[in-house]
Amino acid sequence: MAIKIENQxxxxxxxxxxxxxxxxxxxxxxxxxxxxxxxxxxxxxxxPRLKNTFQTSELPGLYxxxxxxxxxxxxxxxGVLLPANKPIHKRIVPRMSxxxxxxxxxxxxxxxxxxLTLKHSLKKTQLEPAVxxxxxxxxxxxxxxKHSFRARLFKPIQPTLERWAKGLQxxxxxxxxxxxxxx
Length: 183
Hints:
The chain is α/β, with parallel strands linked by helices and 183 residues long. The chain has two domains: 4-146, Metalloproteases ("zincins"), catalytic domain (Collagenase (Catalytic Domain)), CATH 3.40.390; 153-183. The protein has seven helices and four strands; from the N terminus they run βαβββαααααα. The chain has a four-stranded mixed sheet with strand order 1-2-4-3. The longest helix has 25 residues, at 158-182.
């Protein structure tokens, strides 16, 4: 059964938004999306059950688990991904990275669904790292599938780039620790 996509955004969406969501879902294994009924595109998420600690105006996506006869569904806030009331220079970058950000949010929400419904051996403290790892894995596979030439081109040097990134992260963490200790 195909997942229904509801568009409740009043402004014009970028072209091929629905097809990008469908492509993201198609790249996922079918058993990971089992049970999901729909994905709803809204301007901003307004959920009364959320605590006030969350900034719902900055929440890009929300997973709604099954409640009684209603199946689980996803909600994506397009207003967070594409800010409308900001200067032009702050709207260009989000518009250029919209497709990747949308895919990342879909993968993250499906990862929550997968780990909450199908993986029962996780504790609550292990859920967030597991969803983050799931999202990174699916996003990497989706990106390689979308940009196959670029992926084949950079595949041989990818381990070197990852090593450099790891070294830079360690160095940045050491600098941060050093600056905090000196204060």
